[in-house]
Specification:
The structure holds 2 protein chains of 2 kinds.
Chain A: H1 109-116, H2 142-156, H3 162-179, E1 196-200, H4 207-221, E2 227-231, E3 234-235, E4 238-239, E5 242-247, H5 250-260, E6 272-275, H6 276-285, E7 302-307, E8 312-317, E9 324-330, E10 337-339, E11 346-350, E12 353-358, E13 363-369, E14 375-378, E15 384-388, E16 401-405, E17 411-415, E18 427-428, E19 434-439, E20 442-447, E21 452-453, E22 459-460, E23 466-469, E24 475-480, E25 488-494, E26 499-506, E27 509-516, E28 522-529, E29 538-545, E30 553-558, E31 562-567, E32 573-580, E33 583-591, E34 597-603, E35 610-613, E36 619-624, E37 631-636, E38 641-647, E39 653-656, E40 662-667, E41 677-682, E42 687-692, E43 698-701, H7 711-719, H8 721-767, H9 769-775
Antiparallel strand pairs in A: 1-5, 1-6, 2-5, 3-4, 7-8, 7-43, 8-9, 10-11, 11-12, 12-13, 14-15, 15-16, 16-17, 18-19, 19-20, 20-21, 20-22, 23-24, 24-25, 25-26, 27-28, 28-29, 29-30, 31-32, 32-33, 33-34, 35-36, 36-37, 37-38, 39-40, 40-41, 41-42
Helix pairs in contact in A: 1-2, 2-3, 3-6
Chain B: E1 2-3, E2 13-16, H1 22-26, E3 32-35, E4 41-46, E5 52-57, E6 61-66, E7 72-77, E8 83-88, E9 94-99, E10 103-108, E11 114-119, E12 124-129, E13 135-140, H2 144-147, H3 152-155, E14 159-163, E15 169-173, E16 180-185, E17 191-196, E18 201-205, H4 208-212
Antiparallel strand pairs in B: 1-2, 2-3, 4-5, 5-6, 6-7, 8-9, 9-10, 10-11, 12-13, 13-14, 14-15, 16-17, 17-18
The chains are: A alpha+beta, B mainly beta.
Chain lengths: 811, 217
């Protein structure tokens, strides 16, 4: 149950109401289970603290259900009223459950026991005792219960199993309620588990209205049997929107699930009722480890390849020797594919919608039905999916753009959209908490999970031309052009406070482009200007240093035309391609701490039109794609050396792998009809593989989630690099010598087989010798010089005419 | 033996003439005609001892036809596109096909057993077996009709050398500026020639290194 806030695994979240079969107690939508090995360092970043027992941080907005008394988000201007969609079931989050229900003597102790133990799935069965629950508070020892609980905890609370962990925590609650101070007797703790139901979408109330809520709940749920126990988790003085109820017998619980699931309490609250045991079932049946690919012992990366003009899609492990195929499917997608930002899902496009695939076997995980879908965008946190279709938009039911909850498959909200030219229409903040859209003179910022307008109103920004979120914080940058006497303006705004943290006025502006550095440390605004009294366009790079007070700005001016600009990810350098063909230069600049921007180096006469920084920074590939015939220059910017100059003729695409170790250049069938292939290079520009694929279309590396290593750990690793590199070198050598050995071996067997065949053929040939001689009238044609006697020597003579021309004698 | 092309208004026939009876040629009366209505023959050679012919078809099929009865002795389909050329080894025990499907393949003459495959990125128009080494040369390139818009670099009008047993390429000779239509080894194996759509016949003598070169095995 690690990091439920961000990780796509809320066990409580379940399918939308349009799946009625779930009401029969069938397991609800299986949640994406995140079985992440705790000790694996490069696993998902969200599980931090997943193993640290109860945590106190307030639940992030994403996990919070709609506040009860709030009316639905008012419709803003152009959007049609939002349907009061019941919030996806909030998850019973064990981490957030406070330990107070724990017996006061030794709070949380069982949990601690549990943490260290490994998961043992088969032991879970012991929890659910099939016999009906007997109210046994009095006769058995609670202390023994604690004892047993401790014994059980290692199994139940194993961190790798969300379901069982949840189960364990519920025990804590139940016991606390049941036992109170009576800690001496031993109850049969597992008995009640089948009789417990979980009710989601319960109004969130403060203590003042809790009693009332309890009455209402009681009224509804005691219809199905006697409720012997109830628990209302609370946070910040309010209930959390989900409750646990325990009946006398499991049959009552089943009844309740059957009848009360989908019960409409009021407009905003439709109950989702599930057997508690179903959550456990789900946990063990769903897609398996969605991040299994990060556990590859050789730390290889995966990539998807579309070929045969789109009819076939394959997934490969990138291996130095040759790609290792994992999956290969015909017509997996109708157009192209996309990976989600952290690599968890592979999205395929179909006429009827989008499908998400994942897990070890690339099973289908979710479907989003959107006729004629053309474009999609994931939120950076992988919780939401935005889809666009040009079909079927009606005035009162907006569905040109739909935002979906990835885990539940639920439609969160629809939007109108007239023009998809500037996809993505909605830009997400780095944490997925906000998303924004620009329309004429308006910037609308929405918040998740409500999908409503932030503060219920849009920002009125007259003339806004472009905006962009910082990838390192909830800051939005936007610019407006000049309007008569008012200068053009670049504004940085902090959200959700809407506080302008920096405004920069600019003059004689033709156009601006916003370039964020990947960490959000810097913002470069590329400003094309026509200063008074000069001819032509001058480009200014306005560099905002975001991490410093007041956000100081420095300027680099360039008179030449700019072809491309790119920040070094995780660094403070940037590269600019400038000049006119054929005299193109690349310049590398460094933004120093004191704000001075230093030109490090300029290379002249480059064949390039695109800059590709390694995702780790430092290394960069300059590529002359398409019209420039695929020239490639590999540069190390630490000392600005040209490591290699190469070429992949007619290359159309360049893709770095997520670790910055390899780079792929490719000729896509979409842009060029012959020589469709992808080539694998090292970051230094050494060609490793040429992979020709029939009508190859597209290669996409599977992204990796951010590292879990702390700065210090990374530093330590860098320090110990020598130690590691020795190990790796040895490994490489071994595999290399093995490879060459294998090659020689293969050749040898091939040669042997071939020789065997030749020997047979020769024998046959010799057998046929007499026949052949007969056919050819006794002339042996087997050897070139076998009939020397028959050779005739012929001498051919011919005359050369001789003509003498006398040149005029000199006088 | 020759075959007609159905494009010229005739159905595709393989016609067999016996040269000992000169009237067959004079009166154009072959002693046997085999109709090939399905897929026309694009290349054919005589098998060893003249008992049958091996014919390559437009759809990539290979057939053995008896030269006596005309019956189809065996049939295989290893190529997906037209077979442009068939050449036998000097002892006529094996033959190599060159196909539009970008590959050349080696077969046994008698059994039609598929032995080896040589892959390229362009249609192969011709392939020849070295009489002295386990080498094969492939000639081809982008089809002439597509060439006008592309440069020679994209066309890949190169003669390519492969090792017969390992199926690995070990050399390339550039020079033509149109697709190579035909390649042949000199009977002594010390040179080869190629004829291209560009109108040139190029004769290449091998460097001494060629004779010393050996694969590590």
């Amino acid at each position: 149950m690690q990091g439920t806030e961000d990780s796509p695994a809320p066990p409580g979240a379940q399918g939308p109401a349009e799946e009625p079969e779930q009401r029969d107690g069938a397991p609800p939508e299986p949640p994406a289970q995140q079985r992440v090995k705790e000790e694996e360092e490069r696993e998902g970043p969200e599980e931090e603290g997943g193993s640290e027992g109860p945590r106190e941080p307030p639940p992030p907005a994403a996990a919070e259900p709609l506040a009860e008394p709030q009316p639905p988000q008012p419709a803003s201007g152009r959007e049609s009223p939002e349907q009061a969609e019941p919030q996806a079931a909030p998850e019973p989050e064990p981490e957030e459950a406070e330990p107070e229900p724990e017996p006061p003597a030794e709070p949380c102790e069982p949990r601690e026991d549990g943490e260290a133990a490994p998961a043992e799935p088969e032991d879970e069965l012991s929890f659910s005792d099939p016999e009906g629950f007997v109210d046994d508070i009095s006769d058995e020892g609670a202390g023994g219960g604690r004892r047993r609980l401790r014994g059980a905890a290692p199994r139940g609370a194993a961190p790798a199993r969300p379901g069982s962990r949840l189960l364990f925590i519920l025990f804590c609650f139940l016991f606390a309620e049941l036992l109170g101070d009576v800690l001496k007797d031993q109850p049969q703790e597992a008995d009640g588990i089948d009789s417990v139901i979980v009710v989601d979408n319960v109004p969130q109330v403060g203590p003042d209205r809790l009693e009332k809520l309890k009455n209402v709940i009681h009224k509804i749920f005691s219809k199905f049997g006697k409720i012997i126990n109830e628990f209302y988790p609370e946070a910040d003085g309010k209930t959390k929107g989900y409750i646990f109820l325990e009946y006398m017998s499991p049959s009552h619980a089943v009844d309740a699930v059957k009848n009360a699931d989908g019960y409409k309490l009021d407009k905003q609250h439709t109950f989702r009722v599930n057997l508690f045991t179903d959550f456990d079932k789900q946990a063990s049946t769903c897609q398996g480890n969605l991040r299994y690919w990060l556990e590859d012992p050789d730390c290889r990366d995966q990539y998807s390849v579309i070929f045969e003009s789109g009819d076939r899609t394959s997934i490969f492990w990138n291996d130095i020797k040759e790609p290792v195929q994992i999956e290969d499917r015909a017509r997996w997608t109708e157009t192209y594919v996309r990976w989600s930002p952290k690599g968890t899902y592979l999205a395929t496009f179909h006429q009827r919608g989008i499908a998400l695939w994942g897990g070890e076997k690339f099973k289908q995980i979710q479907r989003f039905s959107h006729q004629g879908v053309q474009l999609i965008d994931f939120s950076p946190c992988e919780r939401y999916l935005v889809t666009f279709s040009p079909l079927m938009d009606t005035q009162d039911d907006p569905q040109a753009i739909i935002i979906w909850d990835i885990l539940t498959g639920q439609k969160k909200r629809g939007f109108h959209c007239e023009n998809s030219a500037h996809w993505p229409i909605f830009k997400w903040s780095h944490d997925g908490k906000f998303f924004a859209r620009m329309t004429s003179d308006t910037l609308s910022i929405y918040e998740t999970p409500s999908m409503g307008l932030l503060d219920k109103k849009s920002l009125k920004i007259t003339g806004i031309r472009d905006f962009s979120w910082s990838p390192g914080g909830n800051i939005i940058a936007f610019w407006v052009p000049e309007d008569k006497d008012i200068p053009a303006r670049v504004t940085l705004m902090q959200l959700p406070a809407r506080q302008e943290i920096r405004v920069r006025n600019l003059f004689n502006v033709v156009d601006c482009k916003l370039h964020w550095q990947k960490n959000g440390d810097y913002l470069c605004v590329k400003v094309d200007r026509t200063p008074k009294g000069t001819q032509g366009v001058v480009t200014n790079f306005e560099i905002f240093r975001m991490r410093e007070k007041q956000v100081p700005v420095d300027v680099v001016e360039m008179k030449e035309s700019i072809i491309a600009f790119a920040w070094e990810p995780n660094g403070s350098k940037f590269a600019v391609l400038h000049g006119e063909t054929p005299r193109i230069s690349v310049s590398f600049y460094h933004v120093k701490n004191n704000g001075k921007i230093e030109l490090i180096k300029t290379f002249d006469k480059q064949q390039a039109n695109t800059i590709f920084w390694s995702p780790q920074g430092q290394f960069v590939v300059l590529a002359g794609l398409r019209s420039m015939n695929g020239a490639l220059a590999f540069v190390d910017t630490s000392d600005c050396t040209m490591m290699n100059i190469a070429e992949h003729y007619t290359a159309s695409d360049v893709e770095w792998d997520p670790t910055g170790r390899y780079i792929v250049t490719s000729v896509s069938w979409w842009s060029h009809k012959v020589d469709n292939a992808y080539w694998l290079w090292t970051f230094q520009g050494r060609l490793l593989q040429k992979n020709n694929k029939d009508r190859f279309c597209q290669l996409l590396w599977r992204p990796r989630p951010a590292t879990l290593l702390s700065e210090d750990q990374i530093k330590q690793i860098k320090k110990d690099l020598k130690k590691y590199s020795k190990i790796f070198e040895q490994k490489d050598r071994l595999s290399q010598s093995k490879a060459s050995k294998e090659l020689v071996e293969r050749r040898r067997t091939m040669m042997e087989e071939f020789r065997k065949y030749r020997k047979m053929a020769q024998e046959l040939y010799m057998e046929q010798r007499n026949e052949r001689l007969e056919l050819r009238g006794g002339v042996d044609t087997d050897e070139l010089d076998s009939n020397v006697d028959d050779w005739e020597e012929e001498t051919v003579e011919f005359f050369i005419n001789e003509e003498i021309i006398t040149l005029a004698e000199p006088e | 033996m020759f075959s007609t092309d159905k494009q010229m208004g005739y159905q595709c026939f393989v016609s067999f003439f016996d040269l000992r009876d000169s009237s067959q040629i004079e009166n154009n009366e072959p002693y046997m005609k085999i109709p090939c209505s399905d897929s026309k023959i694009t290349s054919a050679v005589w098998g060893p001892l003249g008992e049958f012919i091996i014919a390559g078809h437009e759809n990539g099929e290979l057939n053995q036809f008896s030269a006596k009865s005309g019956e189809q002795l065996s049939n295989i389909k290893e190529h997906t596109k037209q077979i442009n050329d068939i050449q036998t080894s000097r002892d006529m025990t094996m033959f190599i096909t060159a196909s539009k499907d970008n590959t050349a393949k080696l077969f046994d003459c008698t059994t039609l057993e598929h032995l080896k495959t040589f892959r390229t990125e362009r249609p192969v128009n011709s392939a020849a077996l070295s009489p002295i080494f386990d080498h094969v040369v492939l000639g081809g390139g982008q089809e002439a009709m597509d060439v006008t818009t592309t440069s020679t670099r994209i066309g890949k009008f190169e003669a390519r050398f492969f090792h017969l047993a390992f199926e690995e390429e070990f050399g390339r000779v550039k020079g033509h500026f149109g697709p190579i239509n035909s390649v042949a080894f000199h009977p002594d194996g010390k040179s080869y020639s190629s004829g291209g759509e560009d109108g040139y016949v190029r004769i290449h003598y091998f460097d001494p290194q060629y004779f010393e070169f050996e694969f590590e095995a």
